[in-house]
Amino acid sequence: MREDRFTGKVAFITGAAQGMGYQLALDLAKEGARVVISDVEESALKEAGEALKKQGAQYLALKCDVSSRRQVEEAITKTVETFGRLDILVNNAGLLKSFSIEDTTDELIDATLDINIKGVLYAIRKVTPIMKKQQYGRIINVASITGKNGDNSTTFAYGASKGAVISLTRSVARQLGPFGVTCNAIAPHAVMTKMMEYWDDAKKAEAAAKIPVKRLGTIQDMSQLMMYLASEDAGFVNGETVNINGGYYMD
Questions:
Q1: 244 has pLDDT over 80
Q2: In terms of Cα–Cα distance, which of 220, 102, 120 is closest to 163?
Q3: How many whole angstroms separate alpha carbon 66 and alpha carbon 85?
Q4: Closest C-alpha to 100, from 32, 147, 158, 139
Q5: Which residues are tagged catalytic?
C-alpha cells in the first residue's frame, strides 16, 4: 500500500454500502482518495459512512438507485459540486437472482438489465464530459465470469447483462482512450458477498474444490485488483476484462 497513491483523486462507487464496493471505498480512502459511496440501501449506507468517518476519510454518502437515470446523474453532479472533480468511477452495483429460465419473470429481466446494464451506461455517460475536460479518468466496471462463460446457477438474464458490460467496456475504452480516460472491467467468480448468500456450505465447498488455488474469492482480492486499475500505474491497460477467479476460468 502506498499512502499517497490516490491523493487528490475523487472516486465515485456504486453499490458501495457493502461487499467489494465497501472494501474498495475503505482501501481507496486509506491511500488518500476522497470517496463517494452510493447505494440504494440507506441503513447499510449509513453504517459504511460511519466506518469511513472513523478512518478519517473525506467522503460523501449518497442514496442512489442506479436504475434511475435521474438519481445517477444527480449523485454524480453532487460529487463534482462537493469535491470539484471526479477521477475514478466504479460501476459495482448489481442484481443477481437464482432462477431457472422458465421461472425468470418479466419483472426480473427488467430489473436485472436496468441495474446491471442501464445503470452502468447512465453513469459512464454522465462522467464522460467531466473526465474529458480533465483529460484524465479511470472507469472500472464489475462484470462476471458468467459474462464470458455463461452460468447455470443464476437467472439467464444475469450472464447476458454481464456479457453486455464486457462489450460496453471495450466500446468506452476505444472512445475515451484518446482523452486520457481508461475503461476496464473485472470478471470475478465465487466471491462471497451478500449476493452469494444463496450458496450453502456444500456448494461453497464444491466451488472451492474446482478452483486451482483451492479457495473462494474475497472482497479484499477484488479491491486490490480494482485499486490497481484505478491507479496511474494502469495507464496502459485499457479495454480489458480481467479474470479474477483463482484460475477457475482462463482465456
A1: yes
A2: 120
A3: 20
A4: 158
A5: 158
Q: Which one-letter amino acid corresponds to residue 159?
A: G
Averaged pLDDT for residues 57-82 = 98
**pLDDT tens-place string over residues 74-112:** 999 999 999 999 999 999 999 999 899 999 999 999 999
Confidence of residue 136 (pLDDT cuts 50, 70, 90): very high
CATH of 10-191+220-242, one of 3.40.50.1100, 1.25.40.10, 3.30.70.890, 3.40.50.720: 3.40.50.720
What span, in angstroms and rounded, lies between the C-alpha atoms of 158 and 100? 11
Q: Which helix (H) or strand (E) holds 113?
A: helix 106-113
Report the percentage of the chain scoring pLDDT > 70. 97
The SS3 assignment for 59 reads strand
Please state, in angstroms and rounded to a whole number, the distance separating the CA atoms of residues 136 and 133. 8
Set of cell numbers at residue 217: 474469492
Q: What are φ and ψ of residue 193, in 5° steps?
A: -105, 180
Per-residue model confidence as pLDDT tens digits over 164-204 = 999 999 999 999 999 999 999 999 998 887 766 667 888 88
Within 10 angstroms of residue 135's Cβ, the number of other Cβ atoms is 10
Q: Which three-class secondary structure state does DSSP give residue 19? A: helix
Q: What is the C-alpha separation between 108 and 41, in angstroms, rounded?
A: 19
